[in-house]
Design goal:
The protein is of the alpha+beta class and about 350 residues long. About 50% of the residues lie in helices and about 10% in strands. The protein has a 5-stranded antiparallel beta sheet, sandwiched between helices. β4 and β5 form a beta hairpin. The longest helix has about 40 residues. It starts with about 40 loop residues before the first helix and ends in a 13-residue tail after the last helix.
C-alpha cells in the first residue's frame, strides 16, 4: 500500500504592500496652506511659473481716476510725439530706400560731388537720426502700445472694470521668479525670498499708501488680465470680494496651488500691538537677526490661520516654537520678548 504523504505547504502571510514609488503627501510647510475651493476657478487661470499677490484696493474712486488720468495723459503725449516723428522721418527713410535702389533723390549728393567736411557732416547727421529713431522705437514705442493695446493692458482693465471704491488688485512676480529653485517654499528655503521680495510687498503701510496702479516696481508687475477675470467672477457671483483679501499665491509641484492668507494675520493684529511688532523687528535688525522676525511672523500666521482661530492653546504653541527657533540662533526669547513689552506671555496683542 503506497504511503500517501502529504507535505505541508508553506503559506506566506498576506501583507499589503505599497508600491515603492508611492509618496506620502505631507501637508505644505508653514505658512502655506491649500486654497479654499471658492478660489480655485481663479487660480486655474494663473501661470504656475509666477508668484502672485492679491489684495483689496480700498483707495477712493476719485484718487484712482486721477492716477489713471495722469498715466493716460503721459501715454497720449508719447503717442502724439511718435506719430509726429513718423510723419517727419518716414518720407526721409523712404527717399533713402529709393537711393539704395538707384533712384535720384534730393536728400544729398554722392561723395565725389561734395567736399570731405560736408560728407562727414552728412554722415554724422544721418547716423544721429538713425540712433535717435532707434532709441524711440526701442524705449518709447512699447509704452503706449502696452498701455492701449491688448486684453491685458491697463486700458482694457479700466474699460472692463471701471473705477470702484473697492477693487481687486493682482500682482505677479517679475523675472526673479525664474531663479527660484524647486521646493523653495520649504520653511528653511523661503526665508530669504520672503524677506527680500514678499514681505516688503505685503507690508500693511505699503498697501495702505498706494493704489494698485502705483505698485509696479522692479519685483512686481500688475496682472491686468487676472484682475479682469477676478472682477468677472465677482460679477457672476462665483466669488465674493473677501476671497481676494491680501494673499500670496504660489504653485508647488508637490502640493499644487498654495496660499498664504496674510489677511488673517492683519485681521488678528490689534492697533495697540503694532508698536510692539515694529520694536520687535527693529531690535532683531540691530542684532543682525532680521531673519528671525520673518520666521516668527510665519509661525504666528500659521497658527492664526488654523480652524477655530488663535486660541490660547495655539498662542502657547506659537510661543514654544518661537523659543526653540530663537534658541537655535543664540537668542533668549523670553528675555527678548520682555524687552519689547510682551511680558504678559501672550502673542495675541503683539504678534497676531
Amino acid at each position: 500500500m503506497a504511503k500517501n504523504t502529504s507535505s505541508k505547504s508553506k503559506v506566506k502571510p498576506r501583507t499589503s504592500t505599497t508600491p515603492a514609488d508611492t509618496k506620502v503627501k505631507l501637508s505644505p510647510p508653514s505658512p502655506w496652506s491649500t486654497p479654499p475651493p471658492a478660489l480655485r476657478p481663479f487660480l486655474e487661470s494663473l501661470n504656475p511659473k509666477h508668484v502672485y499677490i492679491t489684495h483689496i484696493d480700498q483707495h477712493p474712486k476719485g484718487h484712482k481716476k486721477r492716477v489713471f488720468a495722469m498715466t493716460a495723459a503721459l501715454n497720449v503725449a508719447i503717442a502724439t510725439l511718435l506719430v509726429w516723428r513718423a510723419t517727419v522721418a518716414l518720407p526721409w527713410y523712404i527717399s533713402i530706400l529709393f537711393a539704395m535702389w538707384g533712384h535720384e533723390i534730393e536728400t544729398g549728393a554722392s561723395a565725389p560731388q561734395i567736399g570731405s567736411n560736408t560728407f562727414i557732416n552728412e554722415t554724422v547727421s544721418r547716423t544721429g537720426n538713425f540712433f535717435f529713431d532707434f532709441m524711440l522705437a526701442r524705449f518709447l514705442v512699447p509704452w503706449p502700445l502696452d498701455f492701449l493695446v491688448g486684453y491685458s493692458s491697463p486700458t482694457a482693465w479700466r474699460l472692463e472694470v471701471g473705477f470702484r471704491d473697492k477693487e481687486v488688485g493682482v500682482r505677479k512676480s517679475r523675472k526673479w521668479d525664474e531663479q527660484l529653485a524647486k521646493g523653495w517654499i520649504a520653511e528653511d528655503a523661503n526665508a530669504a525670498i520672503c524677506k527680500e521680495r514678499i514681505m516688503p510687498a505685503i507690508e500693511r503701510q505699503w498697501i495702505r499708501a498706494k493704489t494698485s496702479y502705483l505698485m509696479m516696481d522692479k519685483s512686481w508687475d500688475l496682472d491686468f488680465a487676472a484682475m479682469i477675470r477676478a472682477h468677472n467672477l465677482l460679477k457672476t457671483g462665483s466669488n465674493r470680494l473677501q476671497d481676494f483679501e491680501k494673499t500670496v499665491i504660489v504653485y508647488s509641484e508637490d502640493f499644487g496651488w498654495l496660499v498664504w492668507e496674510v489677511w488673517k494675520l492683519d485681521e488678528g493684529a490689534q492697533d495697540e500691538g503694532r508698536p510692539k511688532i515694529l520694536t520687535f523687528k527693529e531690535k532683531l535688525t540691530e542684532m543682525g537677526k532680521e531673519d528671525l522676525f520673518y520666521r516668527w511672523v510665519e509661525i504666528v500666521q500659521f497658527e492664526t490661520s488654523q480652524p477655530g482661530g488663535f486660541t490660547k492653546e495655539r498662542q502657547a504653541k506659537a510661543m514654544q516654537e518661537a523659543r526653540e527657533l530663537f534658541e537655535k540662533q543664540g537668542v533668549d526669547f523670553d528675555k527678548f520678548w520682555e524687552k519689547v513689552g510682551g511680558s504678559d506671555g501672550s502673542v495675541e496683542n503683539g504678534g497676531a
